[in-house]
Amino acid sequence: MATDIIINGRFLTQGITGVQRYARELLPAFDALLDHRPELRVRLLTPPIDAGIVPTLRNICHEMVGRRQGHAWEQLDLPRHVKSATLFCPGNTAPIASLLGRTRVVVTVHDLSYRYFPEAYSRSFKLLYNRLIPLIMRRADRVITVSQSERRAILEHYPFADERLIAIQNGGLPTGIAEQTPDPAGDPTVLYVGSLSKRKNFPGMLTAAVRLARTRGTRFVFIGSVPQGLIETLSSVPDDLREHINFAGQVNDWGKLLEAYRSAHCFLFPSFYEASPLPPIEAMGCGCPVIAGDIPSLRERCGDAAHYCDPNDVDGIVTAVEAVLDDPVHASALRAAGYAQAQRYSWHHCAKATLEAIVGTGD
Questions:
Q1: For the residues of 241-253, what is the DSSP string, one character each?
Q2: Per-residue pLDDT reduced to its tens digit, 204-214
Q3: Residue 141 CA from chain centroid, whole number
């Protein structure tokens, strides 16, 4: 008997952050797995979009349904087309009607950052999530999150979800991109990739960058979008150091990203809070030594392949960068350990475990 699965494709209409990247990587990985799963019939439902946005898929059928966009499409149009299929929602939210009805629903809740850093989110966003996430935790047939650390954190708020909440780590480098050979040259360069937000410790990184640029001439490259509230922080960089601190903005071109990873002397990621971040593993897969914040999720994700520092201590961040830049033997050891750690993660394995979680919802 065939099993019908519908993927909530709203993510294809959104800007690309870690959540959308997760869904975009799972989609072709699911499609490849279906070569050997003829009993599964999978459809991708989206709002009306340019067909060119949807990747070429062999086994997954794409259908545009409804007339709305955004949350309205997800809440009003999508549930009308699910019927008896299992609905998989990879981006934190799901239709209330499906959750309250008889539809089998599987949702990936990546993290609860909106609870821990409320100042980083709009009032409407928090209102929506404060209603939807508890409902998902109580009503979804299965909830996936992206690390054991995040699973423990979620259960502190929703202990009743214990039996339905599972952890599946994200993949690493995009499917089809092999490990890269590093090619750092010129002045020592430190790279960061991710949103330039307070929870990512951007103010602390910037303070460390200014200090290291002043005392050592170290160059920093920050790749990522800047929240409105931190634009003023960027202007605090002294005029004489602006050539040393480069804000490259959001970069979605993988050729440019790989070049940035390969050319950096180390990768800095002293975040206060993460669930299963992609950039540290991407850096490792490109042979770039990683400096990470000493928090449980990064320990889980990076293992023994990173140089850890206290994200609350700017002096410690500076010392960690100096330790990697000044010790080629240490940097080389981190590079070798990073390659081994990156090999542990693939979108194929993530998709396989996720597909089994979706299919097993009715067990």
A1: GTTTEEEEE----
A2: 999 999 999 99
A3: 23
Q: Tokens representing 243? A: 């050539």
Domain boundaries, the chain: 3-171+346-362, 189-342
pLDDT, tens digit, for every residue of 65-109?
A: 999 999 999 999 999 999 999 999 999 999 999 999 999 999 999
pLDDT at 228 over 70: no
Q: What is the predicted pLDDT for the residue at 119?
A: 87
- CATH architecture entry for 3-171+346-362: 3-Layer(aba) Sandwich (3.40)
Looking at 158-265, which runs of residues are DSSP E strands? 165-167, 189-193, 219-223, 245-249
pLDDT band at 271 (very low <50, low <70, confident <90, very high): very high
Common-topology check for domains 3-171+346-362 and 189-342: yes
- Partners of residue 61 on adjacent β-strands: 43
Q: How many CA atoms lie within 13 A of 17 on its CB side?
A: 14
| Residue 247 Cα distances to 195, 253, 298, 333, angstroms | 11, 16, 24, 29
Compute the radius of gyration of the chain from its Cα atoms: 21
Write out the CATH class of domain 189-342. Answer: alpha beta
CA distances from residue 74 to 79, 82, 87, 162 in whole angstroms, order as listed: 7, 11, 12, 26
DSSP string, 325-338: HH-HHHHHHHHHHH
| β-strand partners of 117 | none
Split at pLDDT 50, 70, 90, the class of 229 is low
AA identity, residue 348: H
